[in-house]
Design a protein that fits this description.
single chain, 239 residues, alpha/beta, five-stranded antiparallel beta sheet, 7 helices, 27% helix
Length: 239
């Protein structure tokens, strides 16, 4: 529930929520053609497919993002380094570092307005480059594509939505309890390291009204091991 903070001539409204139910685009900073990296790319392709993107376009985008966030200048087969971006009508260079915001995706080769609109609600840009560890106790049915992609090719968004809707009233007490839920138990997952029952990342959104002015601010909080710190802050509405 939102927290209302009234003050003279205005007030603030603060909402705190989970920040783990997403695919971390910085996880695509992987060595092309290697096992762990290929698994991450495959998950991204599955997620994009659940959102109506063709496998060919999703694979090309995964490589373009990989070139954008890695530090080298070697172009992946369907990716793009500086030689692609510097000849555009309005030239610029690749980031060659992790994205600070998913909004940077709009500058990446192959990203259209429609593609960005479809993918953005299910993506995040987290530091470290590791896949997002999903808090299964904070999922809603709109997160079904993210959960289905993380669970593997045998799981459809509808199956993931059914799992979410069948969550115990108090939530799963452990990752093992989540993995024991049908039909997840039939997948024989090797480990549950992609899942958790608490959130490391939190999103704090504030709307501040003073007289006739409105200020919006969004902060991402890393609450790892209880030592909470703000890792990013954005003023203005989401792009």
């Amino acid at each position: 529930e939102p927290v209302e903070l009234p003050f003279e001539e205005g007030g603030a409204r603060v909402l705190l929520g989970d920040g783990t139910a997403c695919f971390n685009v910085n996880a695509l900073n992987t060595t092309y053609g290697e096992g762990a990296g290929d698994q991450t790319v495959a998950e991204f392709i599955r997620l994009a497919g659940h959102l109506g993107v063709s496998e060919f376009d999703a694979a090309a985008l995964a490589q373009a993002i990989g070139d954008w966030v890695d530090e080298d200048t070697s172009r992946r087969p369907q990716g793009g380094e500086d030689e692609h971006y510097t000849v555009l009508p309005s030239p610029y260079r690749t980031g060659n570092q992790a994205m600070a915001s998913v909004s940077e995706l709009r500058a990446v080769k192959g990203v259209t307005r429609e593609l960005y609109g479809a993918l953005k609600p299910h993506l995040c840009a987290r530091e470290g480059g590791a896949p997002s560890v999903i808090n299964v106790n904070m999922l809603s049915e709109r997160h079904a594509p993210v959960l289905a992609a993380a669970l593997g090719p045998a799981v459809t968004p509808q199956m993931a939505a059914d799992v979410i809707s069948a969550r115990p009233p108090g939530g799963w007490t452990s990752v093992d309890a989540f993995l024991a839920t049908p039909p997840i138990s039939d997948l024989e997952l090797e480990n549950g390291s992609r899942f958790a029952v608490s959130s490391r990342f939190l999103i704090a959104r504030a709307e501040i009204v003073y007289d006739t002015a409105l200020l919006e601010m969004t902060s991402v909080i890393d609450a790892n091991e209880g030592a909470a710190r703000v890792i990013s802050r954005r003023l203005g509405a989401e792009e």
